[in-house]
Amino acid sequence: MSKVKHINIFQSLYERGNLPMELMYAKIMDTSLEEDGYTWLQQGKNAISCRLVPSYFTVDQLFSCNIRTVDQYNWGYSIDLSNCSSIDDYLSSQFKSKPRSIIRRYVNRLETCFPISYKLYHGELEKEIYNAVFDSLRDMIKKRFQEREETHKEMWRWEGLKQNTYQQILNKQASLFVIYDGNKPIEISLNYHMGPVLFSSVSSYDLDYGKFGLGHVEIYKQLEWCLSNGYKLFEMGVGGMDYKRKWSNHIYQFSHWIITPKENFFLGLVGKIELWKVRLKEYLKSKKMNELRDRVIELINFDKTKKIVLDEVDFSTEAVNGHIDFQMLTLLTPKEVEQIEGLRKAINDFLYTNTLGYSKIKVYKANSNSRGFLVGYNYQGKDKFIELTR
Questions:
Q1: By the 8 A CB rule, do 204 and 141 touch?
Q2: Ranges for the BioF2-like acetyltransferase domain (predicted)?
Q3: What domain range includes position 199?
């Protein structure tokens, strides 16, 4: 039986998982863990190997133990709001003029084109709404990752997440941020709360609204909420995706802690062996050997794994001039538009480009051509039409 207990500290911290008793007096930005809802593991039974310890995690008092640390080749991405009083302050300090303009355009264009509302469920949430939102988030993730020919890292434990998160929201340890188009969620973020930190853990969006930069809108609006509610850090977790690098003003390196009892020679030796293993692993990561390993595994499994690829439905757009024979057209309801693959995305792209409200257009199906659709709208007092053909 292994005498090393392995713990993902970052995950356990925010999801209120098991933590070693030795860390009972630890803090996150002056917030004590002792006062929160953790399960504390019995002291002195194992050497404890703690990976992904964030830089703002500190320990003031230890229970007769030794801690050895190793820098990991993993970086965390976060937004420090300590010196900001408004979202405009942060945008001005973090972005140049053109990126600021693009972010604001995403927000303004989204709110112009659709009846948008923003909701952060934190403390109160009906179970029926919770189930609907959580299921929508799962569906968004699946569709988005199928398009990328990948599998999201949280899918294997999704039902467990769904089961645990509802009570955490009621306890104000977690929240769901939702962007609604009318009554339809189009972007969702599952967050965790710890003192002055909000961690955006899992998020996704409706691909039909991809042109509107919903990932940027989500961060923009969540930062507004954080600033209005006294939060000091917006955490985005591990991994240097492009949008994280652009938004982050606090990029830090994770560390790996090995904890052993001071008076136990055997566990001290076990801890030293674990320390050597971790150092070797991080050295290999520094030489990008983990990327080589993943590539080799991918090549080995190439013929064994069949990926689901979503065929994107493309529509061509053309202005229509001249007489329109409405007897040859059928007016579609919003529900019927949603049921035609790719049509809603094509319409949304058109709305974004032309700054038009969805409620101001009418969509027709050509009776003589199952692949053709007509969008009617009013521009500067004149009725205009475009044809969408797939």
A1: yes
A2: 98-245
A3: 83-231
